[in-house]
Amino acid sequence: MLTNRQLQILQVIIDDFILSAQPVGSRQISKKTEITFSPATIRNEMADLEELGFLEKTHTSSGRVPSEKGYRFYVDHLLSPQGINSRDVQQIQSIFNDRLVEVEQVIRKSANILSDLTSYTSILLGPDVQRHRVKRFSIVPLSTDTAVAIIVTNNGHVENRIFSLPPNVTASELEKMVNILNERLIGVPLEEIHKKLEAEVLAIFQQHVQSADEFIHSLVTATMHNSESKIFYGGKTNMFNQPEFHDLNKVRMILDLMETKSQVHSLFQPNESGIHIRIGSENKQLGMGDCSVITTTYSIGEDQQGAIAIIGPTRMDYRRVVALLEIMRMDLTQAFTKKS
Amino acid sequence: MLTNRQLQILQVIIDDFILSAQPVGSRQISKKTEITFSPATIRNEMADLEELGFLEKTHTSSGRVPSEKGYRFYVDHLLSPQGINSRDVQQIQSIFNDRLVEVEQVIRKSANILSDLTSYTSILLGPDVQRHRVKRFSIVPLSTDTAVAIIVTNNGHVENRIFSLPPNVTASELEKMVNILNERLIGVPLEEIHKKLEAEVLAIFQQHVQSADEFIHSLVTATMHNSESKIFYGGKTNMFNQPEFHDLNKVRMILDLMETKSQVHSLFQPNESGIHIRIGSENKQLGMGDCSVITTTYSIGEDQQGAIAIIGPTRMDYRRVVALLEIMRMDLTQAFTKKS
DNA sequence: ATTAGCACTCCTCTTAGTTGAGTGCTAACA
DNA sequence: TGTTAGCACTCAACTAAGAGGAGTGCTAAT
């Protein structure tokens, strides 16, 4: 167990390092007003903290730098909630000033504001389209053998996909099919459409139209690989400001990661609420060893969730980011549930 | 006017520099098999070429490096067309192997292959949606005061926008209006919809429904700010490989530029066909002073165009890129006009 | 007109020395 | 016994000087 003095010193060191990005020495610490003991004492304590694994040295005669374990302890035990500057709060509120109707717009703006306020990179996940429910299904023929299927969801999201039409489908048949589809699919979540098509709709189609098999098959392939939730970025190049990312290779790795949808999705905790922090090597993605990721979720309507991630160096201003995410999460949730 | 020997030397220097990124000296040139004269002679010629502005030195006793004027001369007069490796051609053809129905998919894949083959960054512009023509217009109400307007175009593209519904619009009124809209708008290019709405449709609406004004107004604002042509990127971080971009700030500028739609659009020549090359400071965009941009266009259907840009260092392999773009442009044009 | 030879330039790399921030340890002190 | 002053030691960062080498420009010979 750490003594109070050790806790205090650890806190001061991490707070200082987060600001300066420089190894912090005993003399520097002793100058802080809240520190009443001498550099020598501090050196002894630091040696102990290092032995316990909370601090590291970059070389034998350098100041101390927090280790991952140090950061972990810091965020778990030393992170007193921070009040946020009212100017910042105002800026967040400004997202909702101009009555943006579309969810996308709000999220896009949120991403930018978050990256501005943190000076890190933000990634926001929009609502999980797979869980939207069908509001209307329509089919618009384009040529003799192709048509576009359009699904409007309860949230006003529109999915569309071109698919190939079996030969010799008449207009009246098509109309009939669209009617059946609407009867059967309204209220069904997108992720279940293809099951529903095969389980129920196929049988009905077979009674009414020719080439039902092919038709359903076409529709199933068209609706199967439906889009995942959309990804919005803010401040993609903000990490260039951080001294720890002055290395081109690191930056490249992270930028490449952000171009890959599956990798981006892997940054988020599956469905858990609250704020999650992953520090350094706790991130398993290639090239994220020097990053910390703070994630949280927000609600959209009744049963849908979006997610927020902030990516920064391990030397991230955890306190500030956590506070900002807390506000953002609440504001977004409020904005999106009030409405629908 | 340059002598033949000067032309030959200029060509060799640029070809060599494009490959090596190192200033090239007289001895190095004299070793090439096609060069029959001595280093001293070459030095004299180089001094002349420098005086004429085609070459530069990085310092008094360094080898020569092409100047922008040198590159310009090179691409204008020394760029013999290059046959492309059959393996590369094959890879380009592979885009069209698997019958991708959707234009977007083809373009996305093209962007990736282009950046792979060139090892530069590629940007592709999809068709100019504004010039698509309305195939079907429909409106799906979401709540009492909002609805989503959906426009399917002749190419199977789907535009949709949420707009606010005037109070007290009945379902039958809505149906009536959609019918009128379809009668009047089918075949109209998206860019002209709002004009048409105000000029023709408004008058008709006024005869049939209440609150026609508001309704049209809502629709106009919804269709006014329609999406520009979609942008597809390939190899965004490829520039990290180029030694001239080992400077974080340069890279950052370019990456930031690529995040800004208007900036990206400014990279493209307005509508001119053929292949265009802008070298170094011929690019007016901030941070593009060390880049060259090669652009061209391809056709989609009868009257629509997409565009391709390759961004690399001024020390770009112009010959190869031009040859690749030529092929790509033709293949895309062919693929997209055959179909529709 | 071409080229060999040579002095000169200037980048790059290495080595050595200096400085300064910071540590660990010992001994003195309250 | 916990705290602190003092001091020797370490090591990164900076500076200066020198060696090596690639390349040039000029002159004179071919």
From TrEMBL, chains A, B:
Gene3D superfamilies: 3.30.450.40, Heat-inducible transcription repressor hrca homolog, domain 3, Winged helix-like DNA-binding domain superfamily/Winged helix DNA-binding domain. It holds the Pfam family HrcA. HAMAP family: HrcA. InterPro entries: GAF-like_dom_sf, HrcA, HrcA_C, WH-like_DNA-bd_sf, WH_DNA-bd_sf, WHTH_transcript_rep_HrcA_IDD. Residues 104-322 form the Heat-inducible transcription repressor HrcA C-terminal domain. Negative regulator of class I heat shock genes (grpE-dnaK-dnaJ and groELS operons). Prevents heat-shock induction of these operons. The gene is hrcA. This is Heat-inducible transcription repressor HrcA. Keywords: Repressor, Stress response, Transcription, Transcription regulation.
